[in-house]
From TrEMBL:
Signal peptide bounds: none
Biological source species: Flexivirga endophytica
Subcellular location: Cell membrane
Protein name from the UniProt record: ABC transporter permease
Domain MacB-like periplasmic core intervals: 21-247, 502-699
Matching Pfam families: FtsX (PF02687), MacB_PCD (PF12704)
Annotated ranges, domain ABC3 transporter permease C-terminal: 281-401, 733-850
Keywords carried by this UniProt record: Cell membrane, Membrane, Transmembrane, Transmembrane helix
GO MF entries: transmembrane transporter activity
Membrane-topology descriptor: Multi-pass membrane protein
Cellular component terms (Gene Ontology): plasma membrane
Record family assignment: Belongs to the ABC-4 integral membrane protein family.
Transmembrane spans: 20-40, 274-295, 330-356, 368-392, 422-440, 452-481, 502-526, 728-754, 777-800, 820-840
Length: 857
């Protein structure tokens, strides 16, 4: 009998190919995203590892500062390794076992292409560094100058990596302009004397190398090296040399070449892991939506096979055999869908890799890596999700009694909703309390509480949506379907006949659009806050910002702006980073009287910032327990200290947080080679033409390559545009869930047409036209779609509103804003999607032949 039941299950699948395809498709969409995410990150990780395997080859030991991260303004958070250390190593090289010493000098910079515009890197860094001749290099097989070029010699010669030269349309003999991101260097012209084939030469990475003397002058204070690489004498291992250097120079980071390579790999893999988590989060959304479609599909399949299953029971099949039969179908569907999903996911990963490479994102290219993790995850998740989704329908199938075979009607799953509705009400109340608590607080704990409330809300919707379906869809039907007369009434009746099925179908759309509403509310709130902050807090009519990879403005830019006719004054805002009581902190330092260019809402003390003073926001004052008159000592990353006195406390704001330090203290903490600005606030002479002065400033600063001059309105708009770009990426990824949702509606309607075949045949027999059948299906789909969209948008806006409230800890002045445009557009789009989803099922229903349908048993 068991063998017979297996044959029945497999033949049933083969006999209903359309139903099989629709069910498999929902599994494919869920698993393909997981496979794509894992394959893409594995491929990127393998490509980067291949690059970093070539870094520091031949290096036995590397000495660098303990803090070497590039800061947000283009400098490096350390002066480097002093010349005195290099000289001591040179003197004691025999005792230490050092054979070669290679100092390195490097910093961020900007390079012009053949048209005089900054080379676009797609996010990859643009580095300036020192060229190491082959005779001095620790790795004889490292970077090499291609034929036709030579090594740089002197302050106006440089070599450039080959891929950057191609993108910039530069070649040997070309002259171009370069700007160092930090320090006092002005733009200067160099001649390209060679092209270099080097490790790490990705689609966006750019490196220009100068001779050692020039690089030291450009990128350091003249008495430090960015790092020092050492080669050991024969017989001294890398670990031994590391131990000797560590003992001799305990204040520095000392690593073997293997450790340098591994550190680079770990850093990029951490980034890729975060990226992977984001992709997998969206894959999980797709799987959740797909789970409901699969569940819905199997529920309908069981309902349509009541007679078949009852007859099997009548001829001797036990409940366990029927249960295993339905579960076997689920396993086959899950397995097949997972295999196809793996193939589709591989294609997605390849497509994403090609897209990112073609757009110059700086990511390396390499062959796809379809590892065991992607295969196992895809197969396990697909099979498990499908099997779990089929458990409830399978149990219902096993309980079908033989007497059901005598009934004309099919079960519709419309059992009492009382228990699940009570559960939904309890969960909804608890979730509302969690959301309210989260919205009343701020920071990470409050956001976590909102997340708990959101999860509870989703579960409440799963349980309570069937109870909501009848009244809500019924009300929508009275309004939207009424103009269509009896057809509209029939569509409304069909939509609310089986509230479980309607709710399960709509939930796919509800979840996707709930996330759209949450993201839309966050985006609208951020944009509104920035716009309000710029308009309320900034007095300066014109601003200059950096647009390069570092976002930095060399200090010389403000000097050029001050020379422009019509400019009254320029307040440059510097970034300050260091430690306070052993913890990393960051703030700002204005170059002049900040009150001229910005509105400061003073709470206590004075707004006049003294050279060694500190103006702090009330939020920062509360956090660090500062009061007016108190003295605070900051320490730079390389040991310099500056003591400042709190002169005033102002109301926290989005643009002025967390504190403003006097210029004298800033200069103590930040050496000249690391100084940079991130914005210049420009005040104009009385009566000056703003547009004309703006053009003059653009002309005066054009040689700095990355300076962008904007009015404060343009600055607010560009900030909003950046937020929009991030939202587009998120909306694009959420499109997967929405695609699955639409396919779920198609799936449900198509199966519903099969389920109602006799009913449709009867309607055709009594005179209903084909176009009327189609219209009825279209209206039913629109009602289900709008119900799901309305539920998702309402809940999403509420959750988004609560989540925005928690961001007050990180962004002063932020207030929730409802994205009404997004809400209205989404509801209209849902109706359109409903029509599109119903096209094929509607056509299929219209082709039902009355006599065949009536005779169908």
């Amino acid at each position: 009998m068991a063998s017979t039941m297996r044959k029945v299950s497999l033949r049933n699948l083969a006999a209903h190919k359309l139903r099989l395809i629709l069910t498999v498709l929902s599994v494919v969409l869920g698993t393909s995203f997981i496979a794509g995410a894992l394959i893409f990150t594995s491929t990127m990780s393998n490509s980067f590892n291949g690059i970093f395997d070539k870094v520091a080859i031949g290096v036995d030991t590397q000495i660098s500062p303990k803090t070497t991260d590039t800061n947000a303004y283009g400098g490096v958070e350390s002066l480097g390794v002093p010349d005195s250390v290099i000289q001591q190593i040179q003197r004691d090289k025999d005792k230490l076992g050092v054979a070669q010493i290679v100092p390195g000098y490097q910093s961020m910079m900007t390079i012009a292409d053949s048209k005089g515009k900054a080379i676009q890197t797609g996010g990859a860094p643009t580095m300036g560094a020192s060229w190491v001749p082959k005779t001095q290099a620790l790795d004889p097989d490292g970077a090499t100058i291609l034929p036709g070029g030579r090594a740089p010699n002197g302050p106006h010669e440089a070599v450039l990596n080959e891929s950057a030269a191609k993108r910039a349309d530069l070649k040997v003999g070309s002259r171009t302009k370069v700007v160092v991101s930090a320090g006092n260097a002005k733009p200067f012209e160099v001649k390209i004397v060679g092209l270099v084939d080097m490790a790490g030469d990705t689609s966006g990475y750019t490196e220009m190398d100068f001779d050692a003397a020039t690089a030291k002058t450009l990128f350091t204070d003249g008495s430090h090296a960015s790092m020092v690489q050492l080669g050991a004498v024969k017989g001294v291992s890398a670990d031994t040399l590391k131990q000797r250097i560590n003992k001799e120079f305990p204040g520095y980071k000392v690593q073997t070449g293997d450790e340098v390579r591994q550190e680079n790999k770990d850093a990029i893999n951490s980034f890729l892991q975060i990226f992977n988590y984001i992709l997998l989060a969206f894959a999980a959304i797709g799987l959740i939506v797909g789970t409901f479609i699969i569940y819905n599909t199997f529920s309908m399949i069981v309902a349509q096979r009541v007679r078949e299953l009852a007859l099997l029971r009548a001829i001797g099949a036990g409940r366990g055999q029927v249960l295993r039969s339905v579960m076997l179908e689920a396993v086959v569907v899950g397995l097949f869908g997972s295999i196809v999903g793996l193939g589709v996911g591989t294609g997605l990963a390849a497509g994403l890799q090609a897209l990112l490479s073609s757009t110059g994102t700086g990511l390396p290219s390499g062959s796809l890596v379809v590892g065991p993790a992607a295969i196992i995850a895809c197969l396990v998740v697909g099979v498990v999700v499908t099997t779990v989704s089929a458990i409830a329908p399978a149990r219902r199938a096993s309980r079908v009694a033989p007497v059901e075979a005598m009934r004309e009607s099919q079960t519709d799953g419309a059992a009492s909703l009382k228990v699940r509705t009570i559960i939904a009400i309890v969960l909804a109340v608890l979730s509302a309390v969690a959301l309210a608590i989260g919205a009343s607080g701020k920071g990470g704990n409050a956001a976590l509480m909102v997340g708990i409330g959101a999860l509870g809300t989703i579960i409440a919707v799963v349980c309570g949506a069937p109870a909501l379906a009848r009244p809500v869809v019924g009300a929508l039907g009275l309004v939207l379907a009424k103009p269509f007369g009896k057809l509209g009434q029939l569509a409304r009746t069909n939509a609310i006949r089986n509230p479980r099925r309607t709710a399960a179908t709509a939930f796919a759309l509800t979840l996707g659009l709930m996330l759209v509403a949450i993201i839309g509310t966050l985006g609208a709130s951020f944009k509104s806050t920035i716009d309000r902050a710029v308009n309320d807090e900034v007095k300066a009519p014109i601003m200059a910002i950096g647009t390069g990879g570092t976002g930095a403005l060399p200090p010389a830019v403000s000097k050029e702006i001050k020379k422009v006719d019509g400019v009254d004054s320029v307040i440059s805002i510097h970034g300050v980073e260091g430690t306070l009581n052993g913890k990393e902190v960051g703030g700002n330092s204005p170059s002049g009287d900040l009150t001229k260019a910005a509105n400061i809402k003073l709470v206590k003390g004075s707004s006049k910032l003294t050279p060694n003073g500190l103006l702090t926001s009330d939020k920062a004052a509360k956090k660090y327990h500062w009061s007016v008159g108190e003295k605070v000592t900051f320490t730079s990353h390389f040991g310099k200290k500056a003591t400042v006195q709190v002169v005033g406390i102002y109301k926290s704001s989005a643009l002025l947080d967390p504190w403003q330090m006097g210029n004298a203290a800033y200069e103590k903490l930040t050496p000249p080679s690391m100084r940079a600005d991130y914005v210049d606030l420009i005040m104009l002479d009385d009566g000056a033409d703003s547009a004309a002065v703006q053009q003059k400033i653009e002309d005066a600063t054009g040689s700095y390559l990355t300076v962008k001059v904007q009015t404060k309105e343009e600055f607010a708009n560009s900030s909003a545009q950046q937020i929009n770009q991030m939202l587009v990426v998120l909306y694009g990824m959420l499109g997967l869930a929405l695609i699955i949702a639409v396919l779920g509606i198609i799936n449900t309607l198509a199966l519903s047409v099969v389920e109602r075949k006799r009913e449709i045949g009867m309607l055709r027999a009594v005179g209903m036209l084909r176009k009327q059948v189609r219209r009825t299906i279209y209206l039913e789909s629109v009602l289900i779609s709008i119900f799901g969209a309305l539920l998702g948008m309402v809940l999403g806006v509420i959750i988004g509103w609560c989540l925005v409230r928690t961001f007050r800890e990180w962004m002063a002045g932020i207030t929730p804003v409802v994205p009404w445009g997004t809400v209205l557009f989404t509801l209209v789009a849902a109706a359109v999607c409903g029509v599109l989803a119903a096209l094929w099922p509607g056509i299929r229903a219209a082709r039902t032949k009355p006599l065949e349908a009536i005779a169908d048993v």
